[in-house]
Write a structure and sequence with these properties.
flat; 3 helices; mainly alpha
Length: 92
């Protein structure tokens, strides 16, 4: 494996790890929204392409799972942001 591909893969894994960590923290984050959008679009396009090209069910389901993971990240961030927007500020 070439060093540039290794660096790219490590960078992508790091960004995914940070996004998942921030997603669990309960604070809205633009990074998580961007990663969620990327995962959703990659999963949807990959799933469609793997079915259209080779009709491979395992790859189609795998890419679909990736798309659902991205959608779950997006929905969680929207719910967190909506909860923070509607919650009254507590002044102590």
């Amino acid at each position: 494996m070439s060093p540039s591909i290794l660096i790219l893969c490590c960078s992508l894994l790091f960004v995914l790890f940070v996004a998942l960590r921030v997603a669990r923290s309960g604070r809205p984050s633009l990074l998580v929204v961007l990663v969620g959008l990327a995962l959703t679009s990659m999963g949807a396009l990959g799933s469609w392409y793997s079915w259209a090209e080779s009709q491979s069910l395992p790859w189609t389901v795998g890419y679909g799972g990736l798309g659902f993971l991205g959608a779950a990240l997006l929905f969680r961030q929207v719910a967190v942001a909506a909860g923070r927007a509607s919650a009254p500020e507590s002044s102590s």
